[in-house]
Amino acid sequence: MTAVGSRGPLTGKRIMVTRAKSQVQELVDKIERLGGGAYAFPLLKMIPPADKTKLDEAISELPSYDWVIFTSVNGVRFFLERMEQVGVGFAAFAGKIAAVGPKTAQALTKHGLSVAVIPSDYVAEGLLASLHEQLQPGQRVLLPRADIARKALPAELKELGLAVTEVDAYQTVIDGSRAPEAAQQLQEGRIDVILFTSSSTVTHFIQAMAPFASPGWLDQVRIACIGPITAETARKNGLAVDVVASEYTVDGLLEALLENLGGN
């Protein structure tokens, strides 16, 4: 665990971060800048899909899609990497591009790609509301996503009469190698807050910690979730949620946590 910072609104607080290994450092750094101590417990690893057939087919047909919708930074990263691997240039994006949230959009624009729609509400439902006026029945929509992505967005797009193609741009696998150490941190009262940044981090946390859990073992720990969907998953898994961000970003999560702590 990193040392607890000497100054800042999170001074004296020890916070467990359960993001993917490739993303955990950003949140650790933000916590430390606020004076807190961060314990990185990366539960997820993102890897390319085992079968790339559908992904490669979608990339070869990219000019035929009216919309390509990205719902995560990881989706952008793995999709663009695969495009480069198969020798398809970014000019193949002939239709419009939509992104859930500014970080996802930034991952696209840094490659020179133009993003037509970024919803103010950083979840799939917010994206659908922002897109609604521009969608036409019969349009082709490509969704490059994780293998465990929720089905709400493609289902609603299909209800609007769009031809939706979902492809696995990457797959998410559990990494529970540090579970015994993380459990010890919790059992010895060294953690004040656990941050969950997606539903998958919650479910993988529950799976990884199942051998170590005991009644009441998290009673003294605040549970903070990046948004209502993640919070719902946590509650369904028996966790008492203390903090739910109103802006579904890492910064929004930390802001909500600070409000909840209120100097305590």
From TrEMBL:
EC nos: 4.2.1.75
Catalytic activity: hydroxymethylbilane = uroporphyrinogen III + H2O
Domain (Tetrapyrrole biosynthesis uroporphyrinogen III synthase) ranges: 26-255
Pfam families linked to this entry: HEM4 (PF02602)
InterPro entries the UniProt entry points to: 4pyrrol_syn_uPrphyn_synt_sf, 4pyrrol_synth_uPrphyn_synth, UROS/Hem4
GO biological process assignments: protoporphyrinogen IX biosynthetic process; uroporphyrinogen III biosynthetic process
Pathway membership, UniProt: Porphyrin-containing compound metabolism; protoporphyrin-IX biosynthesis; coproporphyrinogen-III from 5-aminolevulinate: step 3/4
MF terms in GO: uroporphyrinogen-III synthase activity
Swiss-Prot/TrEMBL keywords: Lyase, Porphyrin biosynthesis
Family designation: Belongs to the uroporphyrinogen-III synthase family.
Function field: Catalyzes cyclization of the linear tetrapyrrole, hydroxymethylbilane, to the macrocyclic uroporphyrinogen III.
Protein name: Uroporphyrinogen-III synthase
Source organism of this protein record: Brevibacillus agri
